[in-house]
Write a structure and sequence with these properties.
Elements: E1 10-11, H1 21-30, E2 33-37, E3 43-47, H2 50-58, E4 62-63, H3 85-93, H4 104-116, H5 120-139, H6 147-164, H7 168-179, H8 191-214, H9 220-225, H10 237-267, H11 270-278, H12 280-294, E5 303-305, E6 309-311, E7 314-316, E8 321-324, H13 326-329, H14 364-381, E9 386-387, E10 396-399, E11 402-405, E12 410-411
Parallel strand pairs: 1-2, 3-8
Antiparallel strand pairs: 2-3, 4-5, 5-8, 6-7, 9-12, 10-11
Helix pairs in contact: 3-8, 3-10, 5-6, 5-14, 6-10, 7-8, 8-10, 10-12, 10-14, 11-12, 12-14
């Protein structure tokens, strides 16, 4: 049972939460699994400890396909209430591989895995450096810029657009739609406007796939468009479009928020900031610690039990919803020594910021390069970089499944 101060079911998804870590620590102390309620009213089981979280993420009877949820647990409200652009894109584009199980999941995952295999991410480093430096030039023209909308989001969108192969002539159109779909830091959008933006992204990706099939180039969309199924025929266009939309927004939002959170956690810790500035090699290895400490994902994709599952001391019946808290698992003292302390010299551990199991983040190698390059170039170009407000004044948004500061005002 959870402590008396945490009534059951635990209410999740407060719109603005400065520090959820104390709450998660209380829940971990009370037990590994707790009944909880999502913002739309859906009742689920919240997993808070590392061992059970890792087991749940790879459990064969925990599916990410919403078709497995029992009727009494089906969402009664539109995905907009979760604030998740991935949900809106899935609604517009159809089911992608994150919401699919084997064998349907495997054919797309294998193709995407090959697209991200080394040495391809390493070859993208040159493009990342060029993009970061270009955004930094624009940033330098402002005395007191805001780093989320002025640096992190533009860098992440430009990089994933480059990797996917979105032509420059279409990027302004993509950016306009993407801004209407970001969970944190974008201009407010109505549900109708967000759905319209999701539809525009899908139309753009559909047109691009058709162009890439006719005239392939050296980019990820061309690679996907040329993929074949087990019989050697072309993959379903709907599957490819949904996959491209998933890659676009996981490569956009999550990378931007990871970068934003990392900057904040370095700026408020002078010793860690100094160590990062002094050693680029240390900074490269520190990305895992920064992601463990304050990654962009509060929780993993919602999962559904296809059979009775036992996690810790809790038996979860078939057809139930299970939510794995990544933030909580990554601060479990049973797995990480002094987990509440950021130590960029810490040996990289098996943190869960990129997930685990068959849905482990396929773009993790690219994300690491982006965050490393962006942090290094930012800290090198602006050695006096600091927050322009007290850290306690930063407004954090905890809109599941993502968490980031709403804005990051700085002095250069």
């Amino acid at each position: 049972m959870a402590p008396a101060c945490e009534p059951l079911p635990v209410q999740l998804g407060a719109p603005s939460t400065a520090d959820p870590h104390a709450r998660y620590a209380r829940l971990r102390e009370a037990g590994p699994v707790h009944p909880a309620r999502l913002p739309d009213g859906t009742v689920c089981w919240l997993v808070t400890r590392y061992e059970e979280a890792r087991e749940a993420l790879a459990h064969p009877c925990l599916s990410t396909d919403p078709a497995h949820v029992s009727p009494e647990h089906e969402h009664e409200h539109p995905p907009w209430e979760h604030g998740a652009p991935q949900a809106l894109l899935a609604e517009a584009a159809g089911r992608h591989m994150l919401h699919s199980d084997p064998p349907a999941h495997n054919r797309l995952r294998k193709l995407v895995n090959r697209a991200f295999d080394p040495p391809r991410p390493a070859l993208w480093r040159r493009d990342v450096v060029r993009i970061v430096d270009g955004v930094l030039v624009r940033l330098a023209s402002h005395d007191e810029p805001e780093l989320l909308s002025g640096f992190a989001l533009p860098v992440a969108l430009a990089v994933i657009s480059e990797v996917l192969g979105v032509p420059h002539a279409l990027r302004a159109r993509l950016e306009e739609s993407a801004k209407a779909l970001v969970t944190v830091g974008g201009r407010p959008a109505t549900p109708d406007a967000a759905r319209a933006a999701a539809g525009e992204v899908v139309r753009l990706m559909t047109g691009l796939f058709r162009e890439k099939r006719a005239a392939p180039a050296d980019d990820l969309l061309s690679y996907l468009a040329s993929g074949t199924d087990e019989e050697g025929g072309p993959l379903d266009e709907g599957d490819l479009v949904a996959t491209a939309c998933l890659l676009l927004f996981t490569g956009y939002e999550t990378v931007a928020y990871a970068l934003c959170n990392s900057v904040i956690n370095l700026l408020v810790r002078p010793d860690q900031l100094a160590a990062a500035r002094a050693s680029p090699a240390l900074l490269a290895s520190a990305i895992d610690e920064l992601l463990r400490f304050e990654g962009p994902g509060d929780s993993a994709a919602l999962r559904y039990t296809t059979a009775s599952v036992r996690l810790g001391d809790v038996d979860i019946p078939r057809g139930e919803c299970v939510l794995v808290s990544i933030q909580s698992a990554n601060r479990d003292r049973c797995r990480f020594a002094e987990p509440e302390r950021l130590d960029i010299s810490r040996e990289p551990g098996d943190h869960l910021a990129f997930g685990h199991g068959i849905h482990h983040c396929v773009g993790a190698p690219l994300a690491r390069i982006e965050i490393e390059v962006a942090l290094h170039r930012l800290l090198t170009r602006f050695p006096a970089l600091r927050l322009s407000v007290d850290a306690t004044a930063l407004e954090w948004h905890h809109l599941m499944p993502l968490r980031s500061a709403h804005s990051l005002p700085v002095l250069l």
